[in-house]
Amino acid sequence: MPKPESFPIEEIFVPTKQKKAIKPEIVAEIAESILDIGQQAPISVRRDGDRLVLVEGLHRLEACKALGETTILGVVVTAELAQHKPQLAERPEVEAERIKMARLKQLRLEKEAAEASTAASRSVSASEAPRTRPTKGGRDKPKASPGRTVRSAPKTLSAWITQQKGSGGRY
After folding, report:
1. Angstrom distance (rounded) from CA 15 to CA 52
2. What is the pTM of this model?
């Protein structure tokens, strides 16, 4: 396999047929990956007179454009090899790139789900009605009947146990 070179992005011609296959979500994922770990797989181009024609790597090219890059790593392939594009897709490094992108997508989706869950639980706890105190002079408990004492509710488990022992109750 030829050694990857750096090519000016503006000099790479993308055939109209390929331009129609652009998927923005894939471009965004690849751009995110390039920001994190750099470009791992070179694009494939072929020479056509004085210009370079894209053979493989449309989404990588678009991701680099979106990131403001002026150059991209690529390899020059022969016209014969360019015609056998399905064979290029079966190369192990291409398959490894697909697997890596699928893994990155899965990790990103899991991260977004976790963030959404955290945000949802925060909004639920923030929207719970705060406890209000009764207005001054108002009572939330009726007066005890004569001859009967009202005990305040214990604040802790140990206070409740102590209260139960004193009243002869079971705990």
Report:
1. 11
2. 0.48
Q: How far apart are CA 170 and CA 150, in angstroms?
A: 19
Q: Tokens standing for 6?
A: 């750096």
Encode pLDDT of 43-58 as tens digits.
Answer: 999 998 888 999 999 9
How many helices and strands (H and E) does the chain possess? 7, 5
- pLDDT tens across 105-156, in order? 788 888 888 888 888 877 766 666 555 565 665 555 555 555 555 566 777 7
β-bridge mates for residue 51, sequence order: 48
Rounded Cα distance between 47 and 79, Å, is 8
- 75 to 59, 67, 137: CA distances (angstroms): 16, 21, 85
d(CA 151, CA 95): 73
Residues whose CB falls within 8 Å of the CB of residue 33, separated by 6 or more in sequence, listed in order:
40, 63, 100, 101, 104
